[in-house]
Amino acid sequence: MFSKIIPAFFICFFLVSCGDNSSTPDYDSSLPVNNIPPPAQIMYKVVSVYPHDSGAFTQGLEYYGNKLYESTGEYNRSSLRLVDLKTGKVEKSYLLPDKSIFGEGITIFNNKIYQLTWQSNKVYVYPLDNFTRPVDSLKWNREGWGATNDGKNIIISDGSSKLFFVQPDEKSKNFKVNKILTVADNRGEVDSLNELELINGSIYANRWYTNEIIKIDTSTGYVTGAMNLTGLLHQYDPTAKFEDGAVLNGIAYDSATKKMYITGKDWPRLFEIQLQ
């Protein structure tokens, strides 16, 4: 999501490296507010580490057709990109010409790329095979943060605890909302839902300005699992430097090979991880 609005002392917290992923996210099962079980800890291992453009303020990451697509944010430099996974080099890029637009998450749905914008109430639509420019734009009357799809609906986050299951209507230039899912864990509603990825029927979501990815049941909205990625980047790149907002964000999944890719805003590395 957005950047440069968080006090600097939060950055210091983010840079603390634990060296592994054995730490448990801060879920206190002794303080339940409902009947939802506390999220299980999701373990993972790093399989490969690839270069990533440290100037890419990653908002959306999508692996589709053996290609890696990326949406970047920030005013004056928001873009849609095709990226070589192994080298990190940008093979193709479209820079949003409107300097007032802040790019956000993407999803590939019905052979089209849908790119959210933060506060402009626009979703840009590109042909998958040639995204030299948007061919359409649809209205979205909330903030745009992350996006994924289940083959029937585009699923959008807006920074709250809600996930919106919608269908694009290109005739009305709008979206039809089919379902609104409230995300919650044993402590209550879980907000700051950002970049999304549907994996094996569950939604994995970055939480803005945290070191965790949560796993969400799409039928109940319950958080069933959480991955703690504190210190991941510094474990593999101790010299990496952060500015405000350069946090964990970006989840892509290759359903054919079962590979999961994650990165962060302005991170110099992209990680292939395997869930345990």
UniProtKB/TrEMBL annotation:
GO terms for molecular function: glutaminyl-peptide cyclotransferase activity. Keywords: Signal, Transferase. Residues 1-19 form the signal peptide. It comes from the Bacteria. InterPro entries: QCT, Quino_amine_DH_bsu. Pfam families: Glu_cyclase_2. PANTHER family: GLUTAMINYL-PEPTIDE CYCLOTRANSFERASE. This is Glutaminyl-peptide cyclotransferase. It comes from Hanamia caeni.
